Amino acid sequence: MNKLVLTVLMLMLAGSLSAQRKTVVVETPTQMQDESMTLKRKVAIGRFSNETQYAKGIFYDKENDPMGKQALDILSAKLAASGKFLLLERSDLASLLEEAQKGEASAATLGADYMIIGSITEFGRKNTGKNRVFSSEKTQTVEAAVSVRLVDVSTGLIIYSDEAKGSAELTTRTTMGVGGQASYDATLSDKAISEAIGQLVENIINKCTDSPWKTYFLSYEPDAILIAGGKSQGLKEGMTFSIMTKGKKVKNPQTGILITLPGKAVGQATVLSTGGDTPETEYSFVEVNTTEKIDSSNMANYVIEATK
User: Fold this and answer.
1) Is 125 among the domain residues?
2) Separation of alpha carbons 245 and 267, rounded Å
3) How many helices and strands in the chain, by DSSP H and E?
4) pTM beyond 0.85, yes or no
5) Which residues contact 171 (CB under 8 A, 6 or more apart)?
6) Assigned domain for 181 exists
7) CA distance 229 to 40
């Protein structure tokens, strides 16, 4: 009798240990950094669409696709965790993106330095299993592919485009009818999409921070000179930036692409104080020291840049 009890206990223990979860998730490490020295770029995520046929029934609403929103939330969280961005939400980004690509909109119009457009290009799930004499095994696998494009708002050009794939799986085993049992795990979708996006985030961060942080004049009056940006972007009293003229644009006759030449440094702007209530409305008062007179009637010709 004792042998029978011992056998049952051993089988139950084996069953309880037989459910295994294997999830392949690549997370971008968040490094400790001095927030006071970080000038944050303004980034708008234009849209994240679901281009697959998954979960698209007769009542499918393209504007409220749950998988697209899920991917957008994951990307937003990863970018925010880097501490290098202010993420903006704009309801009219689709039309503004079209204008930017035609050269009819500027960074000031969109209120952002960069815009990200993403899509889920592949998504699928499958179940596989093995049945043996005394045991059985079932594996759920979810695979997803994500594509992103990064647009430089000031030029309307796509400066980065890539696709990545991710997967996640859950394995359950039973021995003589005893063991883990699992229905479809919805969190596998999150993990597969998160893995794919995680592979792209570092490249997005590097592309956005390759160029110097920049902003623009808002007003240039004798008693008050204002530039866009404030406390939430990391601007502080005493910070000094270069004032640059915008470089001339020339067209490459071979490709037809407009190339912006480097501008010329004409002075410096030093932050006196900051103001504004939200990232979109923040501003800074600056003191200007220039080598040539600023044309206050043509503020769009100047860019305020951080020195690397």
Assistant:
1) yes
2) 10
3) 5, 16
4) no
5) 19, 20, 21, 22, 137, 138, 139, 140
6) yes
7) 10
